Amino acid sequence: MRAAQSADLTLAEVAPVLGLRDAGQTPCSHLMLVLEQKLTGVRSRQRELADLAGELEQLVETARTLDPANCGPAGICHIITVE
Asked: Where is the Transcription regulator MerR DNA binding domain (predicted)?
């Protein structure tokens, strides 16, 4: 069970594996699919986080060059504006 936890498998993902085993079947192919899906999800999330990091880096760079005295009445600041 510790390996399942380190792979970030949920109880809902582990339960069918245990059910197959309890039924006398080998759950290896099912588990392989679950792990491949988990890996695909992790890689997708990594790409999303990399994109978010890029956006945040741009905002930080922009924020460093802005003068708060130039904020208009419609804006909270140059980065966050009220629409």
From this structure: 2-59
Task: Give whole-number Cα distances, 37 to 27, 44, 45, 64, in Å.
Answer: 15, 11, 12, 40
Output 69-76 pairs: Cβ under 8 A, ≥24 positions apart: none
Check: CB of residue 74 under 8 Å from CB of residue 81: yes
Tell me the C-alpha to C-alpha distance, in Å, between residue 76 and each of 59, 70, 83. Answer: 15, 11, 10
CA dihedral of residues 21, 23, 26, 32 (deg, nearest 10): -60
- Average pLDDT per consecutive 10 residues, the chain (83 residues; last block may be shorter): 80 93 94 95 97 94 82 69 52
Please give the Cα distance from 40 to 45 (Å, whole number): 9
